[in-house]
Design goal:
With 113 residues, this protein is an all-beta fold. It is 0% helix and 50% strand. A hairpin with a 6-residue loop joins strand 5 (46-51) and strand 6 (58-60). The termini are far apart.
Length: 113
């Protein structure tokens, strides 16, 4: 049974930082493209960043380029999203996705002073 579990969300001030983690189990982690999505209230879910296999090539949405960084640790079946210089518009539920179909439950990120 595949499980995808996010952690690390919370409240941050504008300009602050948070680091999200996502652990995936029940699958051959190193064989899957991993990605982060987010969904703000009243908006559609959107891709934030993705990291490929086997080279770990990354892709970041224009809205987060230069501020967010996706990375992966295949030995720990984990990906990360380092979020710096957070803005109020980054407020959303952040979801981890393993491959084309496995989603986590999401973790809330709120950026507010």
């Amino acid at each position: 049974q595949v499980q995808v579990v996010e952690s690390g969300g919370g409240l941050a001030q504008p300009g602050g930082s948070l680091r999200l983690s996502c652990v995936a189990s029940g699958l051959t982690f190193s064989s899957y493209v991993m990605s982060w999505y987010r969904q703000a209230p009243g908006k559609e879910r959107e891709l934030v960043a993705a990291i490929s296999i086997p080279r770990g090539t990354t892709n970041h949405a224009d809205a987060v380029k230069g501020r967010f960084t996706i990375s992966r640790d295949n030995a720990k079946n984990t990906i990360f999203l380092q979020m710096n210089n957070l803005k109020p518009e980054d407020t959303a539920v952040y979801f981890c996705k393993a491959g084309p179909a496995y989603w986590g439950q999401g973790t809330q990120v709120t950026v507010s002073s």
